[in-house]
């Protein structure tokens, strides 16, 4: 534990010292933690020794995904969804399920998985992560509707993919038929807790008897999140749907709480994400990368350059987006943190194909992080109108205006 904590602290310090450089170049903080975990893991240096069955891995993955879904939900209240639903609705309503199905077809025919396990892989890899497209989303030269589309889609699709992951995993475990009612109850209880707890807490603060001070205001949403987590554990409700529902409820009924918690919450979620990426990298050994064979790598490449682009192209027919905008949306479907945690959950589930599923997910995520985090700035610059005009033409145009 001490060794792992030391390794995380050292890599975190390095990431902080390089963060300014990372914002200006293709260097990615997420990629840094992934590579550090890989190098420090059993497959290379053996400094960080972890197994998928270690309680620490499961606990950290659970807490990290809870924090991320809570933060994601808080970014997309109902008002935001209603105001900007036309384009994200296409990506989520059509793009997500189409990506899932096309990815599942590839897993079945290239990797030889059964259809249920293939659908499970598709559900795990369907969500996108905005972290690896930060330069695109944060560039003001990129059309606002495109940035809004990527922001809303990546904030919502983790939660939308989750029920599919749970369902296909239950079927693969052979328990869906016997416990379908129990599974539905678990999901329903999670949603009820996620809506009721923050709503009551916010309404309580709005009464004349209570008021949060400026100093403690950021802790309001944190307390709500912890209470949702505790009640979810106590009632066996689904923690992840509870977290996502709670985030949306806070964003909808407590805009002040949302605003005060935003920066603080993102830092907490980021810490959990980076720690989980370090452990994930330690589990991805050279032996694992080599064991998937050429068909596994071909599947990973197809999941990135075929499944998402085809799904987005079909989803946005007649949408009014330019070819360049559609190409940017199609390419920036990076497989990120949610897929990492879903893969870890499957690895610890005990299903017969758990290792093969994890291997396919792992190589796809590794390839995605390396490709997407190193191309976001390049694609973002393509939207800079000044860069599309040659320097000599700009000088000639200015001289013409002076004469």
UniProtKB/TrEMBL annotation:
It is a multi-pass membrane protein. The keyword Lyase does not apply. GO terms for cellular component: plasma membrane. GO terms for biological process: proton transmembrane transport. Residues 14-375 form the Cation/H+ exchanger transmembrane domain. InterPro entries: Cation/H_exchanger_TM, Na+/solute_symporter_sf. Keywords: Antiport, Cell membrane, Ion transport, Membrane, Transmembrane, Transmembrane helix, Transport. The chain crosses the membrane at residues 32-48, 55-71, 91-111, 118-139, 159-176, 183-202, 222-250, 271-289, 295-316, 328-345, 351-371. Coiled coil: none annotated. Gene3D superfamilies: 1.20.1530.20. GO terms for molecular function: antiporter activity. It is found in: Cell membrane. This is Cation:proton antiporter. It comes from Nonomuraea rhodomycinica.
